């Protein structure tokens, strides 16, 4: 069923009860009017993840669309970009380097991306979906005592932690690149969204410890809070076809790519929009604990 927002010039078809919508009637290969971009941004704030089917963009088109929502980051703080495209990260499903772990993009730096775009280029005939979770719904689901506890906590995010042993030489090389610069950043466990004012659990795979707690207690609490993020009712599953583009709000979501497509090829291109410094309920901002200011990665660090 297609539902049309009263103030939008396109159709919005919800694909999840708490997160996710398909945008119908927008051709991303065309120049988009600023008013239309504002409407898309409003839909993003409401639905957290937007799917644009069969757009058939090239790299230049994806860069052009992503830049409508702000300045772009480079591809990644440590991982190489697509050749000749410094703002595009290849998300390649090569065996051994698959990102099948719940995370929010690049939270190990002080200014993680505001939004991410993923564009499908090669997709397997089965599997290879992307799961996206609504961390604001997860926060609202918390029982009052847990919510009050979360409001007070801060977590340290890092790109350097105990990963599983690499399964191939290529995976080992990817791991070497990933930790070639080490970052640790302290973020609020509950982030206040700078546009909507919503509160969301700001954790995920890079959150490795809670300030003031030891490793065991940190792991237990992070697992508990994370279990609310990954409840099925808080997740939308995006099944890819070639040419699709997904735009999701990196400030209030997590995502996961299940490793369920064997040795089949899968290739997406990611372009991310620069974000601001996260703020907690008390107004305290995130701060770097270890690592440079990531100015080579995001203009927000300047």
Automatic annotation (TrEMBL):
<dbReference type="InterPro" id="IPR051323">
    <property type="entry name" value="AtsK-like"/>
</dbReference>
<keyword id="KW-0223">Dioxygenase</keyword>
<protein>
    <submittedName>
        <fullName>TauD/TfdA family dioxygenase</fullName>
    </submittedName>
</protein>
<dbReference type="GO" id="GO:0051213">
    <property type="term" value="F:dioxygenase activity"/>
</dbReference>
<comment type="similarity">
    <text>Belongs to the TfdA dioxygenase family.</text>
</comment>
<dbReference type="InterPro" id="IPR003819">
    <property type="entry name" value="TauD/TfdA-like"/>
</dbReference>
<dbReference type="Pfam" id="PF02668">
    <property type="entry name" value="TauD"/>
</dbReference>
<keyword id="KW-0479">Metal-binding</keyword>
<keyword id="KW-0560">Oxidoreductase</keyword>
<dbReference type="InterPro" id="IPR042098">
    <property type="entry name" value="TauD-like_sf"/>
</dbReference>
<feature type="domain" description="TauD/TfdA-like">
    <location>
        <begin position="12"/>
        <end position="272"/>
    </location>
</feature>
<keyword id="KW-0408">Iron</keyword>
């Amino acid at each position: 069923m297609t539902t049309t927002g009263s103030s939008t010039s396109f159709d919005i078809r919800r694909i999840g009860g708490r997160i996710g919508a398909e945008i119908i009637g927008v051709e991303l290969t065309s120049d988009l009017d600023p008013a239309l971009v504002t409407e898309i941004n409003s839909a993003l704030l409401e639905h957290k993840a937007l799917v644009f089917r069969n757009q058939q963009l090239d790299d230049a088109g994806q860069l052009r669309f992503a830049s409508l929502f702000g300045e772009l980051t480079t591809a990644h703080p440590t991982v190489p970009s697509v050749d000749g495209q410094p703002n595009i990260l290849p998300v390649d499903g090569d065996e051994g380097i698959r990102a099948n772990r719940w995370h929010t993009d690049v939270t190990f730096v002080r200014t993680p991306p505001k939004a991410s775009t993923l564009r499908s280029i090669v997709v397997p005939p089965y599997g290879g979906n992307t799961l996206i979770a609504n961390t604001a719904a997860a926060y609202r689901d918390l029982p009052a005592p847990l919510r009050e506890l979360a409001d007070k906590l801060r977590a340290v995010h890092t790109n350097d932690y105990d990963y599983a042993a690499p399964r191939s030489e290529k995976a080992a090389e990817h791991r070497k690149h990933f930790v070639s610069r080490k970052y640790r950043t302290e973020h609020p466990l509950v982030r206040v969204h700078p546009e909507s004012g919503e509160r969301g659990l700001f954790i995920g795979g890079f959150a490795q410890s809670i300030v003031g707690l030891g490793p065991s207690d940190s792991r237990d609490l992070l697992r508990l809070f994370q279990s609310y993020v990954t409840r099925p009712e808080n997740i939308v599953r995006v099944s890819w076809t070639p040419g699709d583009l997904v735009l999701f709000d990196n400030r209030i979501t997590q995502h996961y790519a299940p490793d369920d497509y064997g040795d089949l090829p899968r290739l997406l291109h990611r372009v991310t929009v620069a974000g601001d410094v996260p703020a907690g309920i008390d107004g305290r901002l995130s701060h770097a604990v270890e690592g440079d200011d990531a100015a080579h990665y995001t203009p927000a660090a300047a």
